[in-house]
């Protein structure tokens, strides 16, 4: 099981790099995420593509951590592995993540960003405002997970960037 962890850590590190980059492209030139900004850009295909990319990458990275990495690390640490919510709560209990609620909110925010089609600019602005700090939360929690794993697992065989 731990043999797959170096590749998984490397892949998630790349996913986080992509997530941060797409977030930065989405917010390029944006002074404040507010309904007026959404309305002004709603018909711009590049903006719509960036918003969809951000939502999809947010979801992909979140799922990689919650559905693949956390269960593998919990099993390695002889902690119970259960549902995503149970795993998040256990990860919080052992100090790997700060706030399991933010992680559970991630999926609904992703669905809004990808499926709402900008019909309600105020709601979309609110969702983007909620999503942007999640990128940093994901990166920080990933660093904590990686730091724990590096104490107990040889991750040196990993291909890719070390975050």
> Considering DSSP H and I runs of 4 or more, what fraction of the residues is helical?
over 70%
What is the succession of H and E elements?
HHHHHH
- CATH homology superfamily: bsu32300-like
Low-confidence runs:
158-163
Gross CATH architecture: Up-down Bundle
Please give the largest β-sheet: none
* DSSP strand content: under 5%
- Structural class of the secondary structure composition? mainly alpha
**Assigned CATH class:** Mainly Alpha
SS elements, strand count: 0
Instruction: From the alpha carbons, calculate the radius of gyration and give it in angstroms.
Output: 17 Å
Number of helices in the DSSP assignment: 6
Residue-averaged pLDDT? 90
Offer a quick outline of the entry.
With 163 residues, the chain is mainly alpha-helical.
Walk me through what this model shows.
The protein is mainly α. The chain has a single domain (5-152), classed as bsu32300-like (Four Helix Bundle (Hemerythrin (Met), subunit A), Up-down Bundle). Helices cover 73% and strands 0% of the residues. It contains six helices and no strands. It has helices spanning 5-26, 35-41, 45-76, 84-93, 100-115, 121-152. Helix 1 packs antiparallel against helix 3 (45-76), helix 1 packs antiparallel against helix 6 (121-152) and helix 3 (45-76) packs across helix 4. The longest helix is centred in the middle third of the chain and has 32 residues, at 45-76. It is elongated. The model is unreliable at 158-163 (pLDDT under 50).
